[in-house]
Amino acid sequence: MSITVADLPATFTTQMALAAGMHPRELYRVRNESEVLELSRGVYRRADAPMPDWPDLLAVAHRSPIGITCCVSALSVHDLTDEIPAAAQFAVPRTNRAPRIDYPPTQVFRFDAATFELGLSSVEAAPGEPVRIYSAERTVVDLMRLRHSLGEPLAFSALRRYLRRPGARPGELLTLARELGVFGPLRAALDVASAE
Questions:
Q1: Could you point out which of 21, 35, 77, 184 has its C-alpha 20 to 30 Å from the C-alpha of 52?
Q2: pLDDT at 164 over 60
Q3: What distance in Å separates the CA atoms of residue 54 and residue 32, rounded to the nearest whole number?
Q4: Which is nearest to 60 in space by CA: 91, 35, 86?
Q5: Which of 99, 71, 98, 100 has its CA nearest to residue 86?
Q6: β-sheet bridge partners, residue 43
Q7: From what superkingdom does this record's organism come (predicted)?
Q8: Strand partners for 120
Q9: Are 165 and 101 in contact (CB under 8 A)?
Q10: DSSP-based three-state secondary structure for 120
């Protein structure tokens, strides 16, 4: 019995297709005939599947299952910035080697393994296909931690936008900031933001 594209998940890897019994020649044929779209090297999406909201994040999640969407990419998903990230940003633990991904463009951050999954959440990059992402609170704190490299205006803008949201939790920001070693700067930024 031969496997068809319809037998595969909406998004799949070469390894998944081969493990399911698809011959490599058949995989190349369906790719060449546009029955599947190549999101990244070795990551495919069935052409009949619904369009993903976050195709780059979906591709990166399949290429780096341990990776977590972070920084400007996470800000964008959480609607905390109008900036469009030039690359899909994701974090890996410092102890792990990040995959080399040529497409989509990516930027890798290395975070401490002890706090790596702190604030871990998920978002559906496509219907029924969640990817790992940091929560809005963790993302704001990370932007404060990385404000010297990613820019203070971006960090402060994200903080102000977060605080204007219904259900904002400044206490959660401070808890995460304490655990991630940026309590003082975040506390000062909160004081300034609340005085505006």
A1: 21
A2: yes
A3: 23
A4: 91
A5: 71
A6: 13, 40
A7: Bacteria
A8: 134
A9: no
A10: strand
Residue 146's nearest CA partner among 133, 134, 135, 155 is 155
141-163-195-183 Cα dihedral, nearest 10 degrees = -20
Q: What is the pTM for the complete model shown? A: 0.86
* DSSP-derived 3-state class of residue 60: helix
CB 14 within 8 A of CB 28: no
Which tokens sit at 85? 């990230």
- What is the spatial distance between Cα 121 and Cα 133, in angstroms, rounded to a whole number? 5
3 confidence band (pLDDT: 50, 70, 90): confident
Instruction: Compute the distance between CA of residue 32 and CA of residue 20 in angstroms, rounded to an integer.
Output: 20
Given a contact cutoff of 8 angstroms between Cβ atoms, the answer to whether 154 and 131 are in contact is no
Dihedral through CA 174, CA 140, CA 118, CA 57, nearest 10? 170
CA–CA dist 121, 176 (Å, integer): 14
pLDDT at 73: 94
Residue 130 has pLDDT above 80, yes or no: yes
**Tell me, what's the pLDDT at 196?**
63
State yes or no: pLDDT of 194 exceeds 90. no
pLDDT at 195 over 70: no
